[in-house]
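Morning!

This is the sequence you dropped in the shared folder:
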Amino acid sequence: MSILKETFTLANGVEIHKVGLGTWQSAPNDAYRATKFALENGYYHVDTAYVYGNQEEVGRGVKDSGLARKEVFITSKIPAEWKSYEESVRAIDESLKQLGVDYIDLMLIHAPRPWSEMHKRPIINHYYDENAEMWRALEDAYEAGKLRAIGVSNFSVDDLEHLLEKARITPMVNQIIYHIGNTNPEVLAFCEKHNILVEGYSPIATGRLLGDEGIQKMADKYVKSIPQICIRYLLEKNILPLPKSVHEEYILQNGQVDFTIEPEDMTYLDSL
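The structure's back. Tokens below.
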């Protein structure tokens, strides 16, 4: 069975396909074409967000792919800047409308702090209470049947610990940046302990790994491309990769990762 048909099982029993098409920074028309092409060629999982500005086109791509709605796993996200319960409800409802669907398979809080504050140190405001309000909106929408699963994105261990203190439902997913050389072991260990699936975006480090000589040697050994090694690296760690491309050739290649990286090669990649 192709890896694109294989699934992870979330804490609530919902199955999520092991490789998803990322659409971050995909212009609307590109997102439409990429979504439609990917779903026509073996993919079943597409990841978008309210702030990407391409949900309408992603939804159209799903419809025009010929797959039944229940066959496609759609992820979206509440904007990191919308920190109230009411804004979160609005994001969920507007995402449903933009995507043209009756339910969203997975909805995430896009980040624990507004993007303008995400990389500032020291952290002045953690937004613990605001994130709890956003989470309450997700819990309510989940219980109302609008969402099949709920989770977070870009949350650190500290962010997760404070959210869990107030949550009725434990997040099912934490979507973080994850690639060779940026592996965040503390978050991974915490999520494994709490049965939270980790999804990794930018598995090829937004292209920065493409010229790496060591990874290229390994790609040659396996007769694969560097992106395929990078994507498989996440799968070997039971992390769900979300490679993004709008090019048909690369969309196909990114799904052709039905191979195994040997333990000694994983050790080498871990050392980078």
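Headline: The CA atoms of residues 219 and 226 lie 6 Å apart.

More detail when I'm at my desk.
O.
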